[in-house]
Specification:
268 residues, Rossmann fold, alpha/beta, 8 strands, 8-stranded mixed beta sheet
Length: 268
Protein backbone atom coordinates (compact mmCIF):
# COMPACT_ATOMS: atom_id res chain seq x y z
CA UNK A 1 0.00 0.00 0.00
CA UNK A 2 1.25 3.47 -0.94
CA UNK A 3 -0.09 6.05 1.49
CA UNK A 4 0.44 9.59 2.74
CA UNK A 5 -0.66 11.45 5.85
CA UNK A 6 -2.64 14.44 4.63
CA UNK A 7 -4.19 16.63 7.31
CA UNK A 8 -6.21 14.45 9.66
CA UNK A 9 -6.31 11.32 7.47
CA UNK A 10 -4.11 8.77 5.72
CA UNK A 11 -4.77 8.50 1.98
CA UNK A 12 -4.12 5.32 0.03
CA UNK A 13 -3.22 5.97 -3.60
CA UNK A 14 -1.54 4.71 -6.76
CA UNK A 15 1.11 6.79 -8.52
CA UNK A 16 2.24 5.20 -11.77
CA UNK A 17 4.15 6.28 -14.86
CA UNK A 18 6.17 9.38 -15.58
CA UNK A 19 5.46 12.64 -17.36
CA UNK A 20 2.63 15.12 -17.19
CA UNK A 21 0.05 14.26 -14.54
CA UNK A 22 -3.45 12.86 -14.88
CA UNK A 23 -5.47 12.63 -11.65
CA UNK A 24 -8.54 10.36 -11.54
CA UNK A 25 -11.21 10.53 -8.83
CA UNK A 26 -13.47 7.54 -8.22
CA UNK A 27 -17.21 7.53 -7.62
CA UNK A 28 -19.50 6.19 -4.89
CA UNK A 29 -19.46 3.54 -3.50
CA UNK A 30 -16.23 2.45 -5.15
CA UNK A 31 -12.48 2.75 -4.68
CA UNK A 32 -9.45 3.59 -6.78
CA UNK A 33 -9.45 0.17 -8.47
CA UNK A 34 -12.31 1.38 -10.69
CA UNK A 35 -9.72 3.39 -12.64
CA UNK A 36 -7.18 0.57 -13.06
CA UNK A 37 -7.75 0.08 -16.84
CA UNK A 38 -7.24 3.78 -17.51
CA UNK A 39 -4.27 4.12 -15.16
CA UNK A 40 -2.45 1.28 -16.90
CA UNK A 41 -3.34 2.53 -20.37
CA UNK A 42 -2.40 6.17 -19.80
CA UNK A 43 0.80 5.39 -17.87
CA UNK A 44 1.92 3.19 -20.77
CA UNK A 45 1.36 6.17 -23.07
CA UNK A 46 3.84 8.34 -21.18
CA UNK A 47 1.77 10.04 -18.48
CA UNK A 48 2.01 10.04 -14.71
CA UNK A 49 -1.31 8.84 -13.28
CA UNK A 50 -2.35 9.50 -9.67
CA UNK A 51 -5.45 7.71 -8.37
CA UNK A 52 -6.41 8.19 -4.70
CA UNK A 53 -8.91 6.40 -2.52
CA UNK A 54 -11.29 9.06 -1.24
CA UNK A 55 -11.86 9.74 2.45
CA UNK A 56 -14.02 6.90 3.78
CA UNK A 57 -13.27 4.48 0.94
CA UNK A 58 -10.71 1.83 0.07
CA UNK A 59 -7.49 2.24 2.05
CA UNK A 60 -8.16 5.82 3.16
CA UNK A 61 -9.27 6.80 6.66
CA UNK A 62 -12.98 6.58 7.44
CA UNK A 63 -14.38 9.71 9.09
CA UNK A 64 -18.02 9.42 10.23
CA UNK A 65 -20.63 12.12 9.95
CA UNK A 66 -20.94 14.05 6.69
CA UNK A 67 -18.18 14.54 4.12
CA UNK A 68 -18.90 17.46 1.80
CA UNK A 69 -17.38 17.86 -1.64
CA UNK A 70 -15.05 20.64 -0.52
CA UNK A 71 -13.54 18.26 2.06
CA UNK A 72 -12.98 15.59 -0.59
CA UNK A 73 -11.46 18.24 -2.87
CA UNK A 74 -9.15 19.44 -0.09
CA UNK A 75 -7.94 15.89 0.49
CA UNK A 76 -7.11 15.40 -3.19
CA UNK A 77 -5.33 18.74 -3.45
CA UNK A 78 -3.41 18.02 -0.25
CA UNK A 79 -2.17 14.75 -1.75
CA UNK A 80 -1.11 16.48 -4.98
CA UNK A 81 0.76 19.15 -3.00
CA UNK A 82 2.47 16.34 -1.07
CA UNK A 83 3.50 14.73 -4.37
CA UNK A 84 4.76 18.03 -5.80
CA UNK A 85 2.21 18.14 -8.62
CA UNK A 86 1.26 21.69 -9.57
CA UNK A 87 -0.80 21.52 -12.77
CA UNK A 88 -2.62 18.43 -13.99
CA UNK A 89 -5.40 16.96 -16.08
CA UNK A 90 -8.30 16.02 -13.79
CA UNK A 91 -10.94 13.37 -14.27
CA UNK A 92 -13.84 12.10 -12.21
CA UNK A 93 -16.85 9.82 -12.57
CA UNK A 94 -20.23 10.34 -10.89
CA UNK A 95 -19.47 11.69 -7.38
CA UNK A 96 -15.84 11.85 -8.51
CA UNK A 97 -16.94 14.18 -11.31
CA UNK A 98 -18.61 16.46 -8.79
CA UNK A 99 -15.45 16.46 -6.68
CA UNK A 100 -13.54 17.37 -9.84
CA UNK A 101 -15.92 20.28 -10.41
CA UNK A 102 -15.33 21.44 -6.84
CA UNK A 103 -11.57 21.35 -7.44
CA UNK A 104 -12.09 23.40 -10.61
CA UNK A 105 -14.15 25.88 -8.59
CA UNK A 106 -11.50 26.18 -5.89
CA UNK A 107 -8.27 25.97 -7.91
CA UNK A 108 -8.97 26.59 -11.63
CA UNK A 109 -5.40 27.76 -12.28
CA UNK A 110 -4.09 24.25 -11.63
CA UNK A 111 -6.29 22.45 -14.17
CA UNK A 112 -4.88 21.68 -17.65
CA UNK A 113 -7.79 19.57 -18.87
CA UNK A 114 -10.97 18.02 -17.49
CA UNK A 115 -12.79 14.70 -17.85
CA UNK A 116 -16.36 14.52 -16.51
CA UNK A 117 -17.92 11.06 -16.79
CA UNK A 118 -21.49 10.07 -15.93
CA UNK A 119 -22.05 13.00 -13.61
CA UNK A 120 -24.16 16.14 -13.25
CA UNK A 121 -23.31 19.72 -12.30
CA UNK A 122 -26.73 20.42 -10.84
CA UNK A 123 -27.36 20.87 -7.12
CA UNK A 124 -29.35 18.14 -5.40
CA UNK A 125 -33.15 18.44 -5.31
CA UNK A 126 -35.08 18.41 -2.05
CA UNK A 127 -36.33 14.92 -2.91
CA UNK A 128 -32.79 13.80 -3.68
CA UNK A 129 -31.49 15.18 -0.39
CA UNK A 130 -34.08 13.24 1.57
CA UNK A 131 -33.26 10.04 -0.33
CA UNK A 132 -29.52 10.39 0.26
CA UNK A 133 -30.06 10.82 3.99
CA UNK A 134 -32.44 7.85 4.05
CA UNK A 135 -29.92 5.62 2.29
CA UNK A 136 -27.10 6.86 4.53
CA UNK A 137 -29.07 5.88 7.63
CA UNK A 138 -29.82 2.49 6.10
CA UNK A 139 -26.17 1.80 5.29
CA UNK A 140 -25.14 2.55 8.86
CA UNK A 141 -27.85 0.27 10.21
CA UNK A 142 -27.55 -2.63 7.73
CA UNK A 143 -24.16 -2.42 6.02
CA UNK A 144 -23.41 -2.48 2.30
CA UNK A 145 -24.25 -6.02 1.13
CA UNK A 146 -27.96 -5.74 0.33
CA UNK A 147 -27.58 -2.22 -1.00
CA UNK A 148 -24.82 -3.35 -3.36
CA UNK A 149 -26.98 -6.13 -4.80
CA UNK A 150 -29.80 -3.67 -5.41
CA UNK A 151 -27.48 -1.14 -7.07
CA UNK A 152 -25.59 -3.51 -9.37
CA UNK A 153 -28.26 -3.73 -12.15
CA UNK A 154 -28.38 0.07 -12.21
CA UNK A 155 -24.63 0.62 -12.08
CA UNK A 156 -23.88 -1.48 -15.17
CA UNK A 157 -25.95 -2.22 -18.23
CA UNK A 158 -27.87 -5.44 -18.84
CA UNK A 159 -25.44 -6.13 -21.67
CA UNK A 160 -22.49 -5.86 -19.29
CA UNK A 161 -24.16 -8.18 -16.78
CA UNK A 162 -24.72 -10.76 -19.51
CA UNK A 163 -21.49 -10.47 -21.49
CA UNK A 164 -18.86 -9.25 -19.00
CA UNK A 165 -19.50 -11.00 -15.70
CA UNK A 166 -15.97 -10.27 -14.45
CA UNK A 167 -16.65 -6.54 -14.73
CA UNK A 168 -19.96 -6.91 -12.90
CA UNK A 169 -18.21 -8.90 -10.17
CA UNK A 170 -15.54 -6.19 -9.80
CA UNK A 171 -18.26 -3.58 -9.36
CA UNK A 172 -20.09 -5.75 -6.82
CA UNK A 173 -16.87 -6.34 -4.88
CA UNK A 174 -16.05 -2.63 -4.69
CA UNK A 175 -19.54 -1.80 -3.43
CA UNK A 176 -19.73 -4.53 -0.80
CA UNK A 177 -16.21 -3.70 0.42
CA UNK A 178 -16.93 0.01 0.84
CA UNK A 179 -17.01 1.01 4.53
CA UNK A 180 -20.64 1.75 5.38
CA UNK A 181 -19.68 4.67 7.64
CA UNK A 182 -17.64 6.31 4.89
CA UNK A 183 -20.29 5.76 2.22
CA UNK A 184 -22.97 7.19 4.51
CA UNK A 185 -20.85 10.27 5.24
CA UNK A 186 -20.37 10.86 1.53
CA UNK A 187 -24.08 10.57 0.83
CA UNK A 188 -24.91 13.13 3.52
CA UNK A 189 -22.27 15.54 2.29
CA UNK A 190 -23.17 15.12 -1.36
CA UNK A 191 -26.78 16.00 -0.57
CA UNK A 192 -25.56 19.53 0.14
CA UNK A 193 -23.58 20.01 -3.07
CA UNK A 194 -23.80 23.36 -4.88
CA UNK A 195 -24.68 23.95 -8.52
CA UNK A 196 -21.56 23.92 -10.71
CA UNK A 197 -23.02 25.10 -14.02
CA UNK A 198 -21.63 28.62 -13.69
CA UNK A 199 -18.18 27.20 -12.88
CA UNK A 200 -18.25 25.02 -15.99
CA UNK A 201 -19.36 27.90 -18.21
CA UNK A 202 -16.07 29.63 -17.37
CA UNK A 203 -13.83 26.74 -18.38
CA UNK A 204 -11.07 27.51 -20.88
CA UNK A 205 -9.23 24.15 -20.85
CA UNK A 206 -9.91 21.08 -23.03
CA UNK A 207 -12.88 19.26 -21.53
CA UNK A 208 -14.41 15.87 -22.27
CA UNK A 209 -17.89 14.77 -21.18
CA UNK A 210 -18.52 11.00 -21.27
CA UNK A 211 -21.72 9.04 -20.66
CA UNK A 212 -22.98 5.50 -21.18
CA UNK A 213 -26.11 5.10 -23.30
CA UNK A 214 -27.71 2.97 -20.57
CA UNK A 215 -26.79 5.15 -17.60
CA UNK A 216 -29.73 5.03 -15.17
CA UNK A 217 -28.38 7.75 -12.86
CA UNK A 218 -27.17 10.47 -15.23
CA UNK A 219 -28.76 9.80 -18.63
CA UNK A 220 -27.41 10.97 -21.97
CA UNK A 221 -29.63 14.06 -21.87
CA UNK A 222 -27.83 15.22 -18.70
CA UNK A 223 -24.44 14.80 -20.37
CA UNK A 224 -25.65 16.63 -23.47
CA UNK A 225 -26.83 19.58 -21.37
CA UNK A 226 -23.49 19.69 -19.56
CA UNK A 227 -21.58 19.49 -22.85
CA UNK A 228 -23.62 22.37 -24.27
CA UNK A 229 -22.82 24.46 -21.21
CA UNK A 230 -19.03 24.01 -21.43
CA UNK A 231 -17.39 26.11 -24.17
CA UNK A 232 -15.48 23.98 -26.68
CA UNK A 233 -16.07 20.70 -24.86
CA UNK A 234 -16.28 17.26 -26.49
CA UNK A 235 -18.94 14.63 -25.85
CA UNK A 236 -18.41 10.87 -26.03
CA UNK A 237 -21.48 8.63 -25.78
CA UNK A 238 -20.45 5.04 -25.08
CA UNK A 239 -22.83 2.50 -26.57
CA UNK A 240 -24.03 -0.37 -24.40
CA UNK A 241 -22.53 0.98 -21.18
CA UNK A 242 -24.27 1.98 -17.98
CA UNK A 243 -22.94 4.23 -15.22
CA UNK A 244 -19.38 2.88 -15.44
CA UNK A 245 -18.34 3.06 -19.11
CA UNK A 246 -14.64 3.12 -18.20
CA UNK A 247 -15.00 -0.47 -16.91
CA UNK A 248 -17.81 -1.68 -19.16
CA UNK A 249 -16.33 -0.43 -22.44
CA UNK A 250 -12.71 0.48 -21.67
CA UNK A 251 -11.54 0.50 -25.30
CA UNK A 252 -14.07 3.14 -26.32
CA UNK A 253 -13.59 5.10 -23.11
CA UNK A 254 -9.79 5.09 -23.46
CA UNK A 255 -10.04 6.29 -27.06
CA UNK A 256 -12.04 9.33 -25.93
CA UNK A 257 -9.60 9.94 -23.07
CA UNK A 258 -6.64 9.69 -25.46
CA UNK A 259 -8.21 12.40 -27.61
CA UNK A 260 -8.55 14.66 -24.57
CA UNK A 261 -4.93 14.13 -23.56
CA UNK A 262 -3.73 14.83 -27.09
CA UNK A 263 -5.72 18.07 -27.04
CA UNK A 264 -4.11 19.04 -23.73
CA UNK A 265 -0.63 18.28 -25.07
CA UNK A 266 -1.33 20.35 -28.19
CA UNK A 267 -2.60 23.38 -26.28
CA UNK A 268 0.20 23.16 -23.70
Amino acid sequence: MTSASIGDITIGYDDTGQGDALVLVHGHPFDRSMWRPQAEHVAAAGWRVVVPDLRGYGETTVVPGATTLDVFAGDVMGLLDHLGIDRFVLGGLSMGGQIAMEIVRLRPERIRGLLLADTTPRAETDEGKAERHRVADRLQAEGMADHAEELLPRMVSAQTLAERPAVAEHVRTMMTAAPAEGAAAALRGRAERPDYRATLEGLTVPTLVVVGTEDAFTPVAVAEEMHEGIPGSSLAVIQGAGHLPNLERPTEFDEALDNLLRSVATTG
